[in-house]
Amino acid sequence: MTRIGILISGRGSNFEAIADNISAGTIDAEIAVVISNRGEARGLEVARGRGLRAVCIPSKGLDRQIYDRMVVEELRQCGVEVVCLAGFMRLLSAEFIREFPNRILNIHPSLLPAFPGLDAQHQALEHGVKISGCTVHFVDENLDAGPILIQATVPVLDEDTAETLSSRILKEEHRIYSEALRLVISGRYRIEGRRVIRT
Ligand code: GRF
Description:
Blueprint: E1 2-8, H1 13-23, E2 29-36, H2 42-49, E3 54-56, H3 64-77, E4 82-85, H4 94-99, E5 104-108, H5 120-127, E6 131-138, E7 148-155, H6 162-186, E8 189-192, E9 195-198
Parallel strand pairs: 1-2, 1-4, 2-3, 4-5
Antiparallel strand pairs: 5-6, 6-7, 8-9
Helix pairs in contact: 1-6
The structure holds 5-O-phosphono-beta-D-ribofuranosylamine.
């Protein structure tokens, strides 16, 4: 069974959706560890409540390389093969990424490459797009870049606020993150340039 490590910074609802699917037997994996860079992350509590290994490695004041080394060490000790960033609010160093080549996934609440970075739902609303959505992609050294595994669309409604749009997108996030994880675990894809092609 594939051992996954989940990195969070806050609420952890994407982590919970993945954990639910694992419990339901629809993802052939086990969560080896949940790591947060913030002690107050709600997701840590949830992980502990589920009997999972939940570790806080505070990032405040630490050099990126030193911090990343600590996280990689924890992931290695737990035998992690696939890393899922789920609301982890940090860029990863090149050294971290090299440790898990094409084995780190991220979810972003927009149709990348539109609206990378913070407050993607707000950015989409301000831009006036009529369709937005979410993206699961492999992580490379650039922010919200890397080959795209799966995207899902949602309509942007005239009466939307950042909150209503975010919650519509979040529902799709919870669905496609697990779908992408299943694909990566199955190994039934190849990467050609930026394209992830199912095989
Ligand atoms: C999600 O919107 C995700 O796309 C973004 O951060 C948010 C995390 O939410 N990267 P949660 O912690 O999974 O509830």
